[in-house]
Amino acid sequence: MYQHLKIFILDSIVEDMPSITMDNLRLVNKPDASRLLTQISRLLDKKNVRAFIVGGFVRDTLLGRATADIDIAVDADALEIAREVAAALSGTYVELDDVNRIGRVVLPDKKWQVDFTTLKGDIKQDLARRDFTIDAMAAELDKSIDYIDISNIIDPFDGRDDISRRLLKAVDATVFETDAARLVRAVRLAAELGFHIEDATEQLISDNSYRVTDVAGERLREELLRLLALPSAGQRLFYIDRLGLLTALFPELARGKGVDQPKVHVWDIFDHSLQTVSAVEFVLRESSWEFAGDDILAAVPWSDRLSRYFDREISSGSTGRSLLKLAALFHDIAKPQTRTMDDGRARFLGHPEQGAAITADIMTRLRFSNREIQLVELLIKYHLRPTQMSHEGLPTKRAIYRFFRDAGEAGIDLLFLCLADHLATRAASLDMLEWQDHTRMTEYVLTRHFEAENPAEALKIIDGNDVMKSLGLSPGPVVGELLEALREARAAGEIATRPQALAYLKRLFRERAKNI
Asked: Alpha-carbon distance 390 to 20, whole Å?
């Protein structure tokens, strides 16, 4: 039926663009998508299966947004179709929902993933069951299709008009009853697109916010991580709270509302936690922050190496950046229950350790991976450690070694969480001299850390067998303790050679024996 590849996108999309019209659309090729859709359409044609491209791919094509996801609705069993397409294209099949018959195909190069759903009624009836008008559009997938023609888009709910108005609007009043994950998706999608949520839809979200507790943890994890990946996610959290979603998602945070902190703090525990997320984005050069300017940011150490470090993938869907923001949100979550008064001053003894445990429970609930949980646990447990490395002046090499030994993978992240915590404590009342001292310490620790040898290098001078042979020991925990002491002494610059290491171990062992 169709003869040419046509993908309509905007010449440009800018924040203050008032609308999208036919006049400012132009033609741009997307050959990868064309080839993939052609392959799929021919496979389906052989089976006499009618299919439609639906949802986000149509929306993003109209917006000119890059996308790696394609949704296809078929008038057949979607799970069976997805399995056959995966086999034909050497992709990976993933069953997403057995009840609703939703299957995913991930292409070998992981550049594209295609979700197949089973049509419920005809295409217009199917679109009526979708969430937002901008996603309730479709284009028929014909055996020779290699383009999306804007004139042939099926748009029963005027999604194109809402795209023009940059508006996110629910298809009907029951969309959140049908699928409560859409509550969080609405905010995330509006943030990604730079749209605003229609007033009536916003009210629907507030009215249905309690339903979010019924959503499967893994779906909430995916939406949360996509939201945290966006710049200015911190300010979006305030919006989510106004809708009633944040404390519905994380009731543990609600206890911090209205709980005052020592005078140095500008905000109560709850607002401080959300502002710390914004401050993280500020020190990571993601977005501006209304309470700090360029002079404050200029003092924060930065490099391409650090940028790449925070971009590192931790698990599927999460990066160092997104998990640092999550840790910022939860870093003081245990303060309300640990609050005591001492001579009129509020203290929160033990809140880092208790907060780490509470956060681990939350992340387990949301089906985060063990690695993600362990990283965020470390960030919360040790979020006070950077400022405890030295009481006066710069920390010693030994103190820096101990910090990274205990912090493990979270060491660098902790330094930046501590900076953000500092900013979100004082905000506009920041003492510039104190801030410069803090950033100078951070830069010094980073420099020493990057210059230091791998602690494992100490084992090349002396290993466990050498320790046992030279001291007449049997295998046991004492050997490990002595090796750790050796690593620390070497990191401090006290040991450089094998004879020095042997002498150090013998002296240390004699001292331990005297104290037993």
From this structure: 56
Could you give the angle at which helices 498-515 and 477-491 cross, rounded to 10 degrees? 130
**Neighbour count for residue 503 (Cβ, 10 Å):** 12
Give 317-355 pLDDT, tens digit per residue.
899 999 999 999 999 999 999 999 887 788 899 999 999
Tokens (6 digits) for 191? 């943030």
Average pLDDT score over residue span 489-511: 77
Average of per-residue pLDDT across 174-192:
95
Whole-angstrom distance, CA of residue 277 vs CA of residue 246: 14
What single letter denotes the amino acid at residue 100?
N
Torsion of CA 164, 168, 171, 173, to 10 degrees: -140
pLDDT mean over 415-423: 98
pLDDT value at 414 more than 70: yes
Residue type, 499: P
Dihedral of the alpha carbons of 493, 498, 499, 505, in degrees to the nearest 10: 70
CA distance 209 to 201: 12
Q: Each residue of 374-409: pLDDT tens digit?
A: 999 999 999 999 999 987 789 988 899 999 999 989
Beta-carbon count within 10 A of 466 CB: 17
Q: Please report, for residues 37, 114, 141, 144, the alpha-carbon distance to residue 34 in angstroms, rounded to integers and kept in the order given.
A: 5, 13, 11, 10
Neighbour-count burial of 119, counting CB atoms closer than 10 A to its CB (0-12 exposed, 13-18 middle, 19+ buried): buried
Burial of residue 372, with CB atoms counted within 10 A of its CB: 0-12 exposed, 13-18 middle, 19 or more buried: buried
Highest mean pLDDT among 17-31, 409-423, 488-502: 409-423
Contact predicate 52/122, CB 8 Å: no
Residue type, 81: I
Using CB atoms within 10 A of its CB, is residue 130 exposed (0-12), middle (13-18) or buried (19+)? buried
CA 420 to chain centre: 17
Q: Most distant CA pair in the chain: distance in Å?
A: 91
Whether the full predicted model's pTM is greater than 0.85, yes or no, is no
- Identify whether the C-beta of residue 137 lies closer than 8 Å to the C-beta of residue 169: no
Whether residue 324 contacts residue 280, with contact meaning beta carbons closer than 8 Å, is answered with yes
